[in-house]
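User: Some background: our group keeps a shared notebook of sequences we're curious about, and every so often someone picks one and asks for a predicted structure to add to the entry. Today it's my turn. The entry only has the sequence so far, pasted here. Could you supply the structure so I can complete it?
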Amino acid sequence: MDGLIIAAGYGSRLASLSPSKPLTPVAGIALLELAIRQLGAADVDRVVVVTGHEAERLEAALPALAERCAITIEPVRCPDWSLPNGHSVIAGAARIAGAYLLVMADHIFAAPILRNLAGAGGPDRGVTLAIDRRLDHPRIDPDDATWVRTAPDGRIVAIGKTIARYDAVDCGAFLATPELAAAIREAIRDGRPGSLTDGMQRLADAGRAATMDIGDDAMAAWWLDVDDPRAHALAEEEAPRFLPELYGSTETGLRRQP
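Assistant: Of course. Here's the predicted structure to add to the notebook entry:
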């Protein structure tokens, strides 16, 4: 299976910590490397990375990452990274045939989330979104979260940052098919800005957007959107404990990547 990482945006809220958000270290490992290694642990064998802001710096780091992570990495530049993130999805998905795991460069996950999501597809959906129903969890930033309202069968009814009613939050991990990029393109043709959410809502309206509930296990359902200094500080504290396969166990000490 292929993976797609969106790493094109400016990341203004982390700019005080690093000129390149995807290369911002968390307890010694760059966010982008965490994303690549987590996709690899979910049996992804090729990763497409969409670049934009600080593209040269990011692309220069990829060969060493590919060697260190033992995975094929292909960079693709978004023609205009100032546009909504759906344009990055379109650019990256053009290099992928079939289904793929889609993540944002600034989201990190306990290993079971992506492993389970990789097996959650089916002919009855064009995309499957990992969702968290713990709406009041302190790791969730209510001012930045993308909310989801689901039907009784788990399909998405509505998705967005400002929807009035919701029962879950978008975790930022998707098992996508070519239908997702097509839906974003259709939304743009209809006058929408072209965000990933625009495409998701279009698939939801067609009954083609499903969800995977990550559950509430403290270890297996851990995830974090590292989008500002507060979240980064929390990631520095928690990631080594919740991602032992990347950092090593407390018995052997943290295993920072060189």
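Suggested note for the entry: Residues 249-258 have pLDDT under 50 and may be disordered. The helical segments are 31-41, 55-69, 86-93, 111-118, 178-189, 196-205, 229-242, 244-247.
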